């Protein structure tokens, strides 16, 4: 097992190298030049532009640029943003906690809700409960997220008022929206107590993110359970005279969890990337917007930082998924 | 194993591709452009008369009904917090590194220059006591040496005194090669800045520099800001020290900047600024910002487009201000033969169709500009007539006439007669063989809805007089690109292109010179420098513009720019369409909120006078 893990980690090195070359070249061929914002400005002379291009190293040939980036990164220096001139590491470190706070909350809630729903709707296949949840899952799956987010804002942040406005929980006098339409905390005075304020701001973005994730998880869990429930060992368990409760929750659920664990492990790296739509609609200062804003300006040091971080996470969690497999299913061996 | 690696590669590649595809092309001179002329800061307005300053002769008409400054009738109340939503986050607050319009607007509440502009774009003193003139001894006889007497007792927000050394430092910082300053225009023309005493700045230019006031409108940096060679990494860039009414307390990226009262502000004794704090809240889209404005979660929404003003108008408790910005949408007509790469001699190589003035006149006559304003901009913009329509150089020109009959007659006179279909063909036209179809290429930036809608209207309008245009839009990078990238605009390989530059409100000179002087045609010889894309040659205009650039008297300069604007209107190297407005929406409880004629929505310059009812 240890040898297997070491081998996989060593294999990751060439993979990450190829990824970095590929990603770097792709960013460079994109038509977004960091100096483009200056180009139309008549008060920035061609000499100024040339001086800046030289200073930013934009005139270097592609391989030189790449090698500069590589040697810097290998020394542990993530470089500096060409837009803000702050260290890339600081830019990411500032946004990552915000993103994880939102995405992990939504992820956990989605799992807590979806697993029981999936199990029940599999056990009672074709019951009214199954029909309703399946229909809702389909609807949730096909609704355009952007539209759904705006709908949430219009209903809960513009139309509905907070009945507790003016109380100690929400000191701000009415009118106060039922839930805030953006941001992570209340700015300025009349802010609710910190914990209330945080949760209050979390409600709508989490609702929006969950709508994306929930149907998927429900459907995975339901399908997994259905497969397992048809298996011979379940019939054997029932034949031994075990109660339905024990059969479902002890024997079936444990086996149905295997595919879900893989899915979860592979979804974790995505949590780090942030959710661009949700962050955009709810003014959430997360990783998705960091990437998007800097992509628009061709700020390659920041883009490389984010993409390499996410590539590394994907590699690592792929390995974690495979290892977890071996633990869950003793038949799987990696020797 | 191998398949897993490939899968991984593919997924990451896909991620990048999606990101790149999603990213709109680089910001350009589109309506909500992020570029801004570097000499157009609007540091805090002097306190006497900003809120109610009467429109001067040079002031341009405002476009919106609600754009009346609030009368300071009630006594201002002290205290309170105002939240302003910005749909754009500046990468830095260092004025000399950044150029985004959001930065200008935020800095207007924090930083100040020696002079500034009032809401109508006229110069007023700021850190200087008076505007230097020959009469008050501020300008030397040869016009090259300028003396600024400072206002007494001005302090930086950190409590240290503002002195002439800070002005010297600012100049040196910009001129330090490693500092990474975005623009050195104007600063390179300085020979020296000397300090006879702490409260006097003497700037000596190498040659007479007519936009000197605009240059000293740029905010001054304190000499404590840092080492110029290291300017891009200063902590100052995220927490600038200024002399303005507010100072930065905190900046949480992509979320907000908290500004708090500067206790050392010079009018602190008068209770200013009235507000305790201003929160600059970054929202990722205008829709989101409007919802926040509507539900009272923000008090001001910065930079609204004309299209959303009717919605804002209907919001209860919300008002908006709207004044003309310097940006005006226009059709740039190529007067030179597009088949020749960047000809330096357009007079002998005229455009086969557009080279004839009568065709250009006919096109202008056929375009119903008011209809464009009414249908596409909801009547919230104005018909454009020239590039000097806002600020002290404002020149009131008549709007062009709309007459299909006259247009048709002119085309017939010019040798363009109706062909077999409704489109005209040449028969005795000046520069083409008989039988040529009157067909022109019409380009603008792709993906801009307002521009594309405008194109459709103009296409229909021109068709009515038998002019056929076909649309071939390109990404803004292609249209606005560099000489080296082969941009059609610079190489003169186009018929009609539509866009709007963003001239400097503080001084029109660099714009007028770059866009209309015959020396400024992009050619191989000058490596595509200059912006006279029409390749318009007019010796009288050259003379007027160059003369205006060689004198300091604002009144005389105004007349000269007006002369050249009239020549442009006569000869039509460009057809002006509409002026974009600088608009913002705000809550009724916010008092003394004033709109500015601006290159950017610089409303923050009056922040010291805002108060909450």
Question: Summary?
Answer:
The complex is a heterodimer of chains A (335) and B (613). Helices cover 72% and strands 0% of the residues of chain A.
What's the topology here?
The complex is a heterodimer of chains A (335) and B (613).
Chain A: H1 2-29, H2 36-39, H3 46-56, H4 62-74, H5 88-123, H6 128-142, H7 145-159, H8 194-229, H9 232-239, H10 244-273, H11 276-281, H12 287-296, H13 300-328
Chain B: H1 2-22, E1 81-86, H2 101-107, E2 115-117, E3 123-125, E4 145-149, H3 164-175, E5 190-197, E6 200-205, H4 212-215, E7 246-252, E8 256-261, E9 277-282, H5 286-294, E10 300-304, H6 309-314, E11 318-333, H7 357-366, H8 369-376, E12 382-383, H9 404-413, E13 416-418, E14 424-426, E15 439-443, H10 449-463, E16 468-471, H11 476-480, H12 488-491, E17 496-499, H13 509-516, H14 539-548, H15 554-571, E18 574-587, E19 590-591, E20 611-612
Parallel strand pairs in B: 1-9, 1-10, 15-16, 15-17
Antiparallel strand pairs in B: 2-3, 4-6, 5-6, 7-8, 8-9, 10-18, 11-17, 11-18, 12-18, 13-14, 19-20
